[in-house]
């Protein structure tokens, strides 16, 4: 990024640093993990002049941000400005509008007979969402160097651009959507004026980017259907950094996990999944498919194990808690039905531990990635990059990753439980030579574009 | 239809007659009620040479149908042929695929984290659905007069046309969809090969008709998106027959109900809805909106009543039972919260009684029709035709009826509870002169097209 002629500003809800009180009470910055966005961008931004504007997410973050307008602090190689929202504003903007409305709209997750319910609580939350975007916009207006490229990340910041535009015509604004984008049918579930504000908010950017052409077309279809002039659009897929992943895989923690998994699953074929427990990830249907596999082809019983690294997320939302419980009950039922003294059909790991997940990805025979809908899905690319057992991938056709891995990964329609069972069986039975060939091609595609390519595409889109 | 040059065959799941055993054990035909399709078509077909092919829906129907190929029986002015499916085939085709899959797809009702689940039970049901369509196709091939126009009605018969086409090239096949049609995003929820079979099945007709241009375009978009050649398409909206309605409204039963309602709701403004208890009808949000109305504008308390004629349907599906219970609990809660000794905020009538529904439609001040999605919605047109209190209509923008009544009816986005509350308040407060004007315009539009126009459009589409 040093060669970039124009200064760069990154804007996202979560930033690369979080603050904590030390033993003596002073605030100390730490590098945080969290999400493909931050982990992909952080190494590229570290040590540069790039300003990263993010939300203060905790009380300690808010203390570090201080009162008054956001200001840049330098720590751990980053130049970060934390935007301190009122806690209620942050909660309503992020949890209610971001995660419980827009996420559901873009992924098509609503149960329409009951949800969503655009009532007075929603209106209050939408006003908070607007305020949240306004606070980010104010920070951009205040802090962005003259002529900067501003990279606005993801759906939480959909309303940001129009609040910056007229006040800082020198800036180039680029929005990147990490989710799928709702086409006219799904976006119709958001009523006006909100729908119009959302599209108009995105259209006020100089360019809008998406992981795949499919989401890009859904966005432009929605703009056309609802009478909003389209901005320039572009496609820039994100992939993991192979060197970063190799470093994690080679770490002591990961190698210890790998050793344990090797002992635990010795002599069995291993199906793996790694996911947040998230409605869009389709965890229930993955287990239903596995159950059908064991039913239809009993020869797999005792000879295969499904190890799922699935860790809780968004448990502030009732739907997610209920979903987690259903997942746990289903696992218990399958183990109760098929398990024997010497064989547990499903093993779940429920803490979020990246080193362990990478170790698990190292040793799958089949990686199951079957989301109902997913902007990209990095696991589908991380797997092939760290796996050394010639493992293959069963991949939902409704993921961004499918656009790149399709045909080399086995495709499944995510709602088709029987087809998923059949494809799992086919993948488990694949001959070694064919397996090796597929694994090599998966690895090649998965490693073909890293975060630096993705970032370069965004910067290029700004200057076009 | 007498002037029609070509013979006509109507094909639908439900026909105009049902059979029952008399006291002496002999089978007697009766005219059945049931749905806008049958009630709209039956008077036009009665007394003509038209052959109506329908499912045998009960044991007595099956007995009347007899063994072997379907044959035409004459009764009550109809020439009817009943197709006798195996009871399990009928149940799987109609309840599972028709009502629990295709209905959900076209109306967008799935809760995707859990449903649908295309498993082995689904595959068995789809095979039954195919067999059900095959039986209808066999009856058409067997019974249709040379050169006939065959009017295939609704989504249950989506696979019929390709099974007739090559065997009877002399026939013209016209399919009419009474539901909304799923565009590419919603139809994507049905995996291949089923999606392709569905589109190919419809495309094998000479023409496909829809209630509105919106559903027509969704169909052609889906054909294009999924690589199926579009057939000729047309739009033909259905409206009630004003004379039929007037006859019901003038019946003794209806007049008695009207008198009772007059006494019961004297001195109050009356909000009315008339619906099957059906996930797409959005009954919960209607009551939530009413609750918000009473909260935000307490001056309505004691001065308005919401009388809902809502009667159970499809209670063989767990979702419908659960939904009914939620509706009943919500009504109880609102009445518990706001009701007084002299005033019940919500009154529900839960038996399916058309004379009573018509009486209720006669006396609303505001008719609420707020489906999440609806192919047409005849209640929105029946109301204005029988109402004599200058009542106005609050109408979901996601109904076919909105395309015709939009702007004269008040529009609401069906998911927007707060907007619905506001529009209800506005409608209740409307001045008499403006109210009279709106009611007159609603009546004019609602009566502008009857079943005969709709039928004529289908026949015209066949000969183009």
Major sheet description of chain A: 8 strands, mixed
Order of strands, main sheet of chain A, comes to 5-6-4-1-7-8-9-10
Q: Average pLDDT across residues of chain A?
A: 95
pLDDT < 50 stretches of chain A: none
* CATH superfamily (homologous) name of the largest domain in chain A: Glycogen Phosphorylase B
The greatest inter-chain interface is formed by: A-B, 42 and 42 residues
Q: What name is given to the CATH topology of the largest domain in chain A?
A: Rossmann fold
Strand content of chain A: 15-25%
Our Rg estimate of chain A from Cα atoms comes to 22 Å
- By DSSP (H or I, 4+ residues per run), the number of helices of chain A equals 18
Measured between the Cα atoms of the first and last residue of chain A, the distance is: 17 Å
Helix percentage range of chain A: 40-55%
Number of domains of chain A: 2
CATH architecture of the largest domain in chain A: 3-Layer(aba) Sandwich
CATH class of the largest domain in chain A: Alpha Beta
Total beta-strand segments of chain A: 16
Q: What does the oligomeric state look like here? A: homodimer
* Overall 3D form of chain A: globular
Structural class per helix/strand content of chain A?
Answer: alpha/beta
Structural description of this entry:
Two copies of one chain form a homodimer. Chain A is α/β, with parallel strands linked by helices. The first copy, chain A, has two domains: 8-238 and 452-463, Rossmann fold; 242-446, Rossmann fold (3-Layer(aba) Sandwich), CATH 3.40.50.2000. Helix content of chain A is 46%, strand content 18%. In chain A, the strands form three sheets. Chain A has an eight-stranded mixed beta sheet, with helices on both faces. A six-stranded parallel beta sheet of chain A has the order 13-12-11-14-15-16, with helices on both faces. In chain A, helix 14 (379-386) packs across helix 17. The radius of gyration of chain A is 22 Å and the shape is globular. The mean pLDDT of chain A is 95.
């Amino acid at each position: 990024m040093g060669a970039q002629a124009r200064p760069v500003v990154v804007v996202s809800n979560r930033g690369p640093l979080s603050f904590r009180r030390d033993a003596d009470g002073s605030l100390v910055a730490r590098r945080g993990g969290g999400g493909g966005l931050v982990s992909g961008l952080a190494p590229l931004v570290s040590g540069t002049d790039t300003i990263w504007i993010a939300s203060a997410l905790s009380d300690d973050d808010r203390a570090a941000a201080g009162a008054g307008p956001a200001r840049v602090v330098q720590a751990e190689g980053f130049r970060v400005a934390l935007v301190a929202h009122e806690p209620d504003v942050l909660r309503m903007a992020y949890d209610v509008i971001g995660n419980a409305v827009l996420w559901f709209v873009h992924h098509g997750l609503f149960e329409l007979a009951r949800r969503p319910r655009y009532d007075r609580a929603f209106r209050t939350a939408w006003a908070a969402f607007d305020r949240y975007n306004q606070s980010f916009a104010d920070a951009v207006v205040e802090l962005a160097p003259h002529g900067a490229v501003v990279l606005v990340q993801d759906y939480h910041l959909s309303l940001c651009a129009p609040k910056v535009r007229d006040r800082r015509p020198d800036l180039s604004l680029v929005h990147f959507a990490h989710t799928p984008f709702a086409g006219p049918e799904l976006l119709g579930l958001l009523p006006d004026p909100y729908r119009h504000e959302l599209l108009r908010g995105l259209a006020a950017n100089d360019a809008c980017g998406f992981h795949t052409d499919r989401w890009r077309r859904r966005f432009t279809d929605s703009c056309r259907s609802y009478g909003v002039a389209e901005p320039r659009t572009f496609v820039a897929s994100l992939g993991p950094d192979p060197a970063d992943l190799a470093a994690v895989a080679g770490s002591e923690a990961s190698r210890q996990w790998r050793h344990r998994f090797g002992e635990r699953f010795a002599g069995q074929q291993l199906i793996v999944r790694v996911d947040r427990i998230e409605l869009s990830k389709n965890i229930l249907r993955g287990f239903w498919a596995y159950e059908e596999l064991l039913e239809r082809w009993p020869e797999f019983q005792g000879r295969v194990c499904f190890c799922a690294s699935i860790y809780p997320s968004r448990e502030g939302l009732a739907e997610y808690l209920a979903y987690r419980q259903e997942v746990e009950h289903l696992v218990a039922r399958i183990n109760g039905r098929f398990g024997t003294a010497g064989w547990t059909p499903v093993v779940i790991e429920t803490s979020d531990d990246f080193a362990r997940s990478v170790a698990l990805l190292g040793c799958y025979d089949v990686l199951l990635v079957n989301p109902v809908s997913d902007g990209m899905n990095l696991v589908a690319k991380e797997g092939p990059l760290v796996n050394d057992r010639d493992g293959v991938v069963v991949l939902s056709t409704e993921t961004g990753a499918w656009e790149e891995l399709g045909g080399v990964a086995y495709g499944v329609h995510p709602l088709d439980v029987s087809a998923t069972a059949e494809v799992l069986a086919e993948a488990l039975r694949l001959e070694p030579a064919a397996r090796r060939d597929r694994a090599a091609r998966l690895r090649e595609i998965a490693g073909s574009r890293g975060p630096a390519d993705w970032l370069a595409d965004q910067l290029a889109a700004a200057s076009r």
